[in-house]
Write a structure and sequence with these properties.
By secondary structure, the chain is of the alpha+beta class. It has 6 helices and 12 strands. The chain is globular and about 55 Å long.
Length: 204
């Protein structure tokens, strides 16, 4: 892809993330309770329209996104788009698959940074912060390349505590934790990403 075209697609992807995950209501873009936006409304929005973004552009960005962040769906003859996860705006969990306790994978982890680990521990654990869920995965490809720490979750203990897990359409696992937190007592282990060395987070 031409560097100019690649830069444009990155801009489109970031704009879709902002509008569909966080800014739809603020930007007066109609979004339903499940996070779906009618495609024509999106294309007519000033943020998108000012860059002359076409339906073909959006479809290309959706198809080429390496984390499958977005999904397209037809309903009553109209095309809709939604973000698969990562919302801070209030939407229902209907587009997510609620997992039975026996279906929660044992190897879920969250990627973060060594510099942030002390603050995570001091604040009580992994927090959903301003989002609706804490994001977890079993797939290293879904972790930012710059993350140097992996926090593995004791999902069995989480389930025993009544924590509910969901799976999104792009195989990201989501949880609200307990009060928006998954505490250090629910960590299975913390390790360095490259070396796999164990990190003694209890001492931080």
């Amino acid at each position: 892809m031409d560097p100019v075209d690649e830069k444009r697609d990155i801009w489109i992807s970031k704009s879709l993330s902002y509008l569909l995950r966080h800014g739809a209501k603020k930007e007066k873009l109609e979004i339903d309770d499940h996070g779906n936006v009618e495609m024509q409304h999106l294309l007519n929005h000033n943020r998108i329209k000012c860059r002359h973004v076409t339906l073909e552009d959006v479809k290309r960005v959706v198809t080429n996104n390496n984390k499958n962040r977005f999904a397209l769906k037809q309903h009553n003859g109209k095309l809709y788009i939604c973000a698969q996860n990562g919302h801070s705006i209030g939407i229902s969990n209907q587009n997510l698959e609620k997992l039975e306790p026996s279906a929660v994978p044992a190897g879920l982890f969250h990627g973060t940074y060594k510099a942030k680990l002390p603050a995570i521990i001091a604040s009580g654990g992994l927090s959903r912060m301003n989002r609706n869920h804490i994001h977890l995965t079993t797939n290293m490809n879904y972790v930012r390349p710059t993350c140097d720490i992996l926090i593995f979750i004791d999902t069995e203990k989480c389930v025993e505590r009544g924590i509910v897990f969901y799976k999104s359409g792009n195989d990201v696992y989501l949880t609200e934790g307990l009060g928006g937190i998954v505490g250090p007592d629910l960590f299975r282990r913390v390790e360095e990403r490259l070396s796999g060395a164990n990190v003694q987070y209890e001492l931080l």
